[in-house]
Structure prediction request, 397 residues.
Amino acid sequence: MNNFTYHNPVKVVFGLGTLKQAGEEAAKLGKRALVVSYGDASVTGTLAKLKGLLDSAGVASQEFLEVVPNPPIEMVARGVEAAKAFGADLVVGVGGGSAMDAAKAIAAGVLYTHGDLWNMVYASHSNVTAQPPEEALPLLLIPTLPATGSEMNMCSVVSSTARGQKSYIWADCLFAKTAILDPELTYSLPPFQTACGAIDAISHVLEIYINGQDESDLLHAWQLALMRTIVENLPKALANPSDAHARTELMWCATCGLNGWASPGDAWTPMHQVGHVLTSRHGINHGSSLAIVMPAWMTYHKALKPERYAQFAVKAMGICPHGKSAAELADEGIAAFRDFIKASGVPTTLGEKGVTAADIPAIVEGVRTVSFNADGVLASNPPVTAEALSEILKLAL
Prediction:
C-alpha cells in the first residue's frame, strides 16, 4: 500500500428524514445563509421546506438559483456578488454535484483575494498556475442526487464558457462543515438522473481500482464491495423509486466513493479527465461521459492486469468463475458492466451522442491541454499517451 495522509473534517447527518435537522445545523454555522441551487421544479419542494427550517432556527436566507450543469465560473462570480450583497456568513448548497460544487466555489470566492476567480482553478496539469483559495464561508451541503460525493470532499468542479474548459478547484477550505444526507430527497429523481448518478459513483471507485496502486488488499476489497452494492441496488431503485433500502445504499455509496476512503494513496482519475472534455466539447452529461469511457478504457487495458479485471468480474459483476481463465473472466466482466449500463438507460458509445471518429483528435487535444502532465502523458498506472487515448476513444465509437 502507498503512503498517504488522510483528513476529512465533514460532519455527516445521515438517514431518512434528516432534512428536518437543517435549520439547527445551519444555526451552528451562521446567521445569514445564501442558498445555492437550481431554478427549476426539481428542488422547489425541498427549498420551501428548507426555508421554513432556516426561518424557525433564526437563520435569514436568500436563494441564488442560477446553477446549471457544469457550473460556469461566470455564474459563480454572480453568486459571489449575491452573497456579498446579502451579507452571507454561510452558504447552503442543495442539489446534485453541480449545485454543491457551485456552492463551494461561491463560498471560497467571497473571500478570494487573488484576482479573477478562474485563478482558483487547476486549469493545466503540466503548467500549474492555480492559486487555490485559502478560506471560505462555512458550508452546509444537502445532496439530492447521489453521485459526486461533493458533500464530503475538498473538490469543486467548474467550467469556463469563454475558455471551453472544465477542471478543478482543490483546497482544504472547500470541505463542508456539515452534510445532511437524506435519501428521501432522491425518491423523485427521474430514472436517467438516478442511473447517471450511480454510474458516476461507480466511476470514482473503478478509476482507482484499475488505474491505481498494484498492491492494496483492503483497499481493493473495499472498492469491489462498493461497486457491487451499487450494481445490486440501482435496478431496485429504478424499478421502485421509493425503495428506501436501495436509495439509502446508493446515497451512502456515492458519498463513500469520493470521500477519500476508496482512494488513500492514490490520485489517478484519467477517465474523468476524458469525460470532462466530452462534456465541455460535446455537451455529454457527466455520468454519460463516464459510461462511454469506462468500458472502452477497460477493453484497452484488460491484458495488462488480467487478475484485477477477473476479480472485478467475479466480485463486482457477479460472474461465475468456474472453469474460466482470467482473460475470459475479464471479457465477461466488461461485457456485463456494459450491459448493466445499457439496462439502466445510459448510452455506452460515442456514436449514440453524435461523436464521430473525426472528432477524436480534437478530444485528445482537449485532454492533453488540460490534463496531461509535464511528462506529456495522462497520469495513470500505467500512464496513457495521446496515441493510446486515441485508440481508447476509437473503441468507444
User: Anything to note?
Assistant: The chain is about 45% helix and 10% strand. The first strand starts at residue 11 and ends at 14. Residues 217-239 form the longest helix (23 residues).
